[in-house]
Amino acid sequence: QLEQEKQQREQADAAREQTQSQLEQEKQQRELAEAQLEKTTLYEYLFYCHLYLTKPMQVGSADKSTQGTTTKVTGRCYPGKILPWEDFLKSQEDQFNRLRHIFGEERLFTPRSHIESLGEKVCRKELRSEDDLKIHQHSAIQIPVEDIFSVRSQHLDWEDLNIGNGLVFENHENALKNSSKEVEGASQSLFKSLPKDQLCSFIYRGGVHRLAFIIEYKAPHKISVEQFREALCKPNLCQDVVNLGIISNDATLKAQEKANKIAAMILTQIFHYMVEKRLPYSYISTGEAFVFLQIKEDEEKTVYYHVIAREDASLPDVPDSSDIHARRPSIFNTPVNQVACFCLTALQSERFSHGWQVKAKHVLPTWPDRLEDTGRDDSSVIDDGGK
Fold first, then answer.
1. What is the C-alpha separation between 148 and 45, in angstroms, rounded?
2. What span, in angstroms and rounded, lies between the C-alpha atoms of 72 and 74?
3. N or C: fewer beta carbons within 10 Å in the chain?
């Protein structure tokens, strides 16, 4: 009898423990589901955007990707000097601190579950062309950045950001032409307008779109982050490519020389547009590399650069947000944050005068008509979207 009662007590205890365990498990599942639907803080938003939108990005192999047509840079002005943007990270850090100060721990941004769902769609396909890259960057970078600037915080410093009603990314200039009364005048006489597929960013203020900067996209299989960085380390890159072309017979050196030419042509294209639109800031994106550019008003022949790689944000694959604040350096390096901070800098700048542009036109060198006529290897031509 005693043994039977003991067994019954043990069975009852086991049943209670099992019930308690089930209740705790159900509670954890409810909390997880609620957390998935809960709005995110700035840190969490940047963390999940990288985890689900940029980190899983897949790059197609070169042999299965578009070859496209030559990017035409003939007659376009190129920088005489390419120098490191020494205070870039300091500027980015200052802007990041402003965003952190304004948003704090407020839950204002898209829930994690929505970001994860978007990532499953955005990163499903390998990137094999500029068009693929633009589609990915629209969802993975532009929409998150627009969301950051569309959120309205109650913080008094929000108005000091000088962003009006937010910013918007456009793939044409119609918004600018239709809403702004600014007359380009000299700009139109000196340069042709931007190609329709050249992506631009505008600030929206009082019903007027103001051009803030330009983005140049190039498919990541065309030039690696390492090749881009090595090419840009050459202060006279563009001039050297124009003068020397590709001369090495060594396979490794020849590959870098081709990469140098690709980098020089990409840089020439966006630099020309920056001068055309009188812009101090713009950037290049391959999805893998983000090359941020600056022209200073009194140094029109020089472009300053800083390269941020997608891999610089060393965040874990496991979606654990418990130690997000401990990962601040990596969150700072995420592409969404870097572009958002860069936007703040660009939006607070003023475009150069028409007089500046006229001067630049007269002093800047231009890409020669036909490099191939000199007998140099032109096999490194870069893709223009395969159109």
1. 9
2. 6
3. N
